[in-house]
Model the fold of this input.
Amino acid sequence: MSTTDAKQAQEKTDEITKTPQDLESSADYSAEEIGKLKEELEEQKKKSAELSKRMLYLQADILNLQRQSDRREAQAREDVKLNYLLELALIREDLERALSTSGIDASSTLRDGLSMLVSRIDSNLKGGSLERIRVPVGAAFDPHMHEAVAYTETAEKNEGCILSVIGSGYMYKGKVIKPALVEVARQNRSSLGGGHSKESVNANKERRTEEKIEVGARTGDESQSEST
Done:
């Protein structure tokens, strides 16, 4: 490259890197041209700021979508796990009923094998945070833990007293997911003085159902608000 070409290239570089203040002092630009360049510069700054703002919004939207996707995936895994544990619990109940039958000898190998299988299932259920609701016979009926499916009139037990357990209930991570099915004592109509009557038990059952619906609706609203 000749000395003349190098000089011309340097002049072009100096021209490009001039600031508005340099342009004001340059005789090559009029005051009107400099004003237009300043307006164009301010306009480009505004556009750049707007694009940056939109970029931040897009990044926030992508982050929210990722979080929602992670929550749905985690919930799906939790649902699959819970369904598996409940199926396993039902199998345990069948085995327990088989052990309670009189057709299996107490010293038989079959009984020992079934007992070992029940113990293995209990260990898996406990490891999966699924716990069986303990319902002592004679305990008071609790609408949050029990569901009355049978009533027996008796003068020997208090109203609302649990007489027997018909079906097992379960808790998952401290929350009742399946109430225990129980038989509840009920006094004669003439001697009712309090406690849990059939009507009050049904009312409690309806209230528990409404609470579940309300919780589900609130969860849906929270998911909707998070998505927005």
In short: The domain at 131-228 is CATH 2.30.22.10 (Nucleotide Exchange Factor Grpe; Chain A, domain 2). Helices lie at 3-16, 20-24, 31-100, 109-127, 198-227.
